[in-house]
From TrEMBL:
Residues 24-276 form the EAL domain. This is PAS domain S-box-containing protein/diguanylate cyclase (GGDEF) domain-containing protein. The chain holds residues 781 to 1060 of 1060 of the full protein. It comes from the Bacteria. Keywords: Membrane, Transmembrane, Transmembrane helix. The lineage of its organism: Bacteria, Pseudomonadati, Pseudomonadota, Betaproteobacteria, Rhodocyclales. It comes from Aromatoleum tolulyticum.
Length: 280
C-alpha cells in the first residue's frame, strides 16, 4: 500500500511502526507482572520556598526493570494510562507516599508530599473512598497530601469532578494543577474547583528569562494565582537566572535540578530526618 502511494521508505516506516506497537505491548505486559513483584520505586524531588525552606516534595515513580535497569516514567506511564494498569501503579504510589508521610510525622518531620493522579484513576467511582482508606490505614495526615491533577481531567464531566474534589478537599487534602498553562481548559474552573496550587510547566519556566511570550505567560499565571490566593510551584528550575526571574515576579516555590534532583525516597528521608534531629 505504501509502495503504491509513492512512499520512498515503506519498509522502514512499517517496521518502525510495528516495533513501536510491539514494544508498547511488551512494556505493558512486563509492567503488569513487575508491579506485584515489587519493581516500582518511589523517588522524591524537594520543593523550596524563595527563602530556602523545604516546603514539600513531589513523588515521582520509577521502574527498576530486571534487565533494562531504572526506567523513567516517560517510557511507561503513558502506556500504563491506556489501560487500568495506571490504577495499579497509582495505588502503589499513593500507598508509598502516605506511608512516608506517616513515618516522617512519627519522626517529627512535617513532610508534605505531592502525588500525580491519572484522570483514569480519579474517575473511578471508588476513588474517594479508596483515598480515605489509604489515609486511615497509613495514619497519614490529609493536609500533608497534595493531589496533582491536569487540566485534561477537568474538561469533561465537570460536575462529577467538582463533587469529588470538594469531598476530598473537605478532608484537608490539597489540589494542584500540574503543567498549568499547557492545557486547553478555561480559567473559569479555577473559581469553581477547590484548587490550592498551580504548577507552572517547565517549558515556560526555562524560557521565561529570554522569551518575552513565556515571560508574559509566567507573569499572567502569577497574577491569576495572587488574585485567587493560590500557591505557585515552578517546575524545572535549572539555573540561577530562572530562579531569580521567578523571584523578581512573585511568590514562587521552586522545584528543579538547581535545588535538588529526584532521588530515591529513602535517601531523601535519611537526609531530612538527620537534619530534623540536628535542628531540634
Ligand atoms: P510531572 O508531574 O510534570 O513531573 C515533573 C517532571 O519534571 C519530572 O519528570 C521531574 O523529574 C522533571 N524535572 C524536575 N526538575 C527538573 C529540571 O530542573 N529540569 C528538567 N529537565 N526536568 C525536571 P519525571 O520524573 O521523568 O516524570 C515525568 C512525568 O511522568 C511526570 O511529569 C508525570 O506526569 C508522570 N509521572 C511521574 N510519576 C508519576 C506517578 O506516580 N503517577 C502518574 N500518574 N504519573 C507520574
Ligand atoms: Mg507532577
Ligand atoms: Mg508538571
Ligand atoms: Mg506532567
Amino acid at each position: 500500500r505504501a509502495k503504491e502511494s509513492g512512499e520512498s521508505h515503506p519498509a522502514f516506516f512499517e517496521a518502525s511502526m510495528g516495533e513501536t506497537a510491539a514494544e508498547s505491548f511488551r512494556i505493558e505486559r512486563e509492567l503488569r507482572a513487575g508491579i506485584p513483584r515489587g519493581e516500582l520505586r518511589l523517588f522524591l524531588q524537594p520543593q523550596f520556598s524563595a527563602s530556602g525552606d523545604m516546603v514539600g516534595a513531589e513523588a515521582l515513580v520509577r521502574w527498576q526493570h530486571p534487565q533494562r535497569g531504572l526506567v523513567a516514567p516517560g517510557v511507561f506511564v503513558p502506556i500504563a494510562e491506556e489501560s487500568d494498569l495506571i490504577v495499579e501503579l497509582g495505588i502503589w504510589v499513593m500507598n508509598e507516599a502516605c506511608r512516608l508521610i506517616a513515618v516522617a510525622a512519627r519522626q517529627g518531620l512535617p513532610l508534605a508530599l505531592s502525588v500525580n493522579i491519572s484522570p483514569r484513576h480519579f474517575r473511578r467511582p471508588e476513588f474517594n473512598s479508596w483515598v480515605r482508606e489509604v489515609l486511615d490505614r497509613t495514619g497519614a495526615e490529609p493536609a500533608r497530601l497534595t493531589l496533582e491533577i491536569t487540566e485534561g481531567l477537568i474538561i469533561d464531566n465537570v460536575s462529577d469532578v467538582v463533587a469529588k474534589m470538594n469531598e476530598l478537599s473537605a478532608l484537608g487534602i490539597r489540589f494542584s494543577i500540574d503543567d498549568f498553562g499547557t492545557g486547553y481548559s478555561s480559567l473559569a474552573y479555577l473559581k469553581r474547583l477547590p484548587i490550592d496550587e498551580l504548577k507552572i510547566d517547565k517549558t515556560f519556566v526555562q524560557d521565561a528569562p529570554h522569551d518575552p511570550s513565556d515571560a508574559a505567560l509566567v507573569e499572567t499565571i502569577l497574577a491569576v494565582a495572587r488574585q485567587l490566593q493560590l500557591k505557585v510551584v515552578a517546575e524545572g528550575v535549572e539555573t540561577a537566572e530562572q530562579a531569580e526571574f521567578l523571584n523578581s515576579r512573585g511568590k514562587v516555590v521552586h522545584q528543579g535540578y538547581l535545588f535538588g534532583r529526584p532521588a530515591p525516597a529513602d535517601e531523601w528521608m535519611a537526609r531530612w530526618t538527620a537534619k530534623a534531629g540536628a535542628d531540634a
